[in-house]
Specification:
With about 450 residues, this protein is of the alpha/beta class. It has 2 domains: about 180 residues, 3-Layer(aba) Sandwich (D-Maltodextrin-Binding Protein, domain 2); about 180 residues, D-Maltodextrin-Binding Protein, domain 2 (3-Layer(aba) Sandwich), CATH 3.40.190. It contains 15 helices and 14 strands. The strands form 3 sheets. Strands 1, 2, 3, 4, 5, 12 and 13 form a 7-stranded mixed β-sheet that branches. Strands 8-7-9-6-10 form a 5-stranded mixed β-sheet, with helices on one face. The radius of gyration is 24 Å and the shape is elongated.
């Protein structure tokens, strides 16, 4: 995706404010000012709110269907999940007149996001719908906030969805990226209670896992997917954002204040490698980066390594859907109930593309995908898979053996994560280079 543009907007606003301040202008905006501003926006190609646009959010499926039949274009779905293709097939069975008028194109997140931008910027809009997972807020802040995408909020669906999940888009389902453990080794359940249990063995005197006698005290053998990918960088970013809670959890668990050691090994260079000082999440991440860790390319490899546990107690961090490998005989389970939370609620969102040719057809498909007005009329069941939960309270997925409450998931704070998670990637690369075992 293109570089973050939020900072540029803030700078522009500050410069505009400064210009008024320097000129000594203290007037408030008049009606003519607002009209002039709206005219300027329109002249620069932005689309103002269309007063005559139908109230799509409150339309029934029948009403959307009647409008969609009047459209003549092909409803094109860009998606990062192959399950969307199943939804297309189900949709055509329910609405056979759309056979040949709806298509699905699969792509990875970065590629499809860039494509949405490029098509809009060149005036060659092809897609009507984007279905994509957003872990870090990039889709919301770079595509929604810049009017490449619209959020469709069908009232009949949203009345059954946790309002906390509707902030950044319309979610299709919820998943997460938890830790996995070996259920054969720990038949009574995983002994972890917090994130601090994962980094146990760190010696604050030697600032490593090797004590003064040269003994390696690292307890867990660790396997992970790429920590610099949005799924995992966003999770660590949230932990650092919640640094006070992470430090409080340490004190609750161990009965003494957390000792911050990362400041002794690092230099806080403003604008270069800047990080929060005396932050519980940063201390946790520092200790984690100093562990002996094996990064693997594929989540199946991660859970396979956990199943084998060749070097003693083993943990693996990857997407929750890899729990399906239980069906292949692997002795794996999710680590659940970590304090202050186990992982983030990661939503797969669905958006309509701004200024597409099939606004009613796109929304009809989305409403159908989300189960229709009653949760049963569409194809929400197509996403009932291991590692996923339904977003509707009137339709329950039963493939995942853990509930959201049992897993202890947190709603992501994209406002904080979006501006911070790129720093986590930089921390990981640099801090790992300082680890004794790397």
């Amino acid at each position: 995706m293109k570089k973050h543009r939020v900072l540029a907007s803030l700078i522009a606003f500050m410069l505009l404010f400064s210009a008024f301040a320097v000129a000594g202008c203290a007037k408030t905006a008049t009606e003519s000012d607002v009209v002039a501003a709206d005219t300027n926006v329109a002249e620069n190609g932005a689309t103002a709110s269309a007063a005559n646009e139908p109230d799509y959010d409150n339309m029934s499926m029948d009403e959307l269907y009647e409008l969609a039949k009047q459209e003549t274009g092909t409803i094109t779905i860009y998606a990062t999940t192959s399950t969307a293709q199943v939804a297309v097939r189900k949709f055509v069975k329910s609405y056979p007149e759309f056979d040949g008028r709806i298509e699905y194109i699969e792509s990875d997140t970065d590629t499809v996001a860039d494509r949405i931008e490029t098509e809009a910027d060149t005036g060659n809009i092809n897609a009507d719908i984007l279905q994509v997972k957003d872990c870090s807020g990039e889709i919301f802040y770079e595509l929604v906030q810049y009017d490449y995408l619209d959020i469709y909020y069908p009232a009949s669906v949203c009345s059954h969805v946790d309002s906390g999940l509707l902030t950044y888009g319309l979610p299709v389902y919820v998943t997460c990226c938890p830790w996995f453990y070996n259920t054969e080794v720990y038949a009574d359940g995983c002994p972890l209670t917090s994130w601090w249990d994962i980094v146990q063995g760190y010696d604050t005197a030697t600032h490593s896992y090797i004590d003064a006698n040269g003994v390696d005290q690292q307890y867990w053998t660790i396997y992970t997917k790429d920590i610099t990918s949005p799924d995992y960088a966003a999770l660590w970013a949230q932990l650092i954002v919640d640094g006070d809670s992470i430090a409080a959890q340490y004190e609750t668990q161990y009965g003494e204040p957390l000792e911050y050691t990362y400041m002794d090994a690092l230099q806080n260079n403003s604008g270069i490698m800047e990080f929060p000082e005396n932050n519980g999440g940063a201390e946790l991440f520092w200790r984690f980066t100093q562990m002996e860790i094996t990064e693997l390319d594929d989540g199946d490899q991660v859970v396979s390594a956990v199943d084998k546990s060749l070097n003693g107690p083993t943990l693996g961090l990857c997407t929750g859907s890899k729990l399906v490998n239980i069906d292949n005989g692997l002795n794996i389970g999710w680590v659940t109930g970590l304090q202050p939370y186990t992982a983030l609620k990661v939503c797969d969102y669905i958006y309509t593309v701004k200024n597409s040719d099939n606004p009613a057809g796109a929304r009809l498909f989305i409403l159908y995908m989300l189960g229709g007005e009653d949760g049963q009329s569409g194809c929400l069941y197509a996403f009932n898979q291991v590692g996923k939960w339904s977003v509707r309270d009137d339709y329950i997925y039963d493939k995942t053996p853990y509930s959201i409450e049992e897993t202890n998931l947190k709603n992501p704070d994209f406002e904080e994560i979006y501006s911070f998670y790129p720093d986590v990637k930089a921390y990981w690369i640099y801090w790992r280079s300082l680890a004794p075992s790397t």
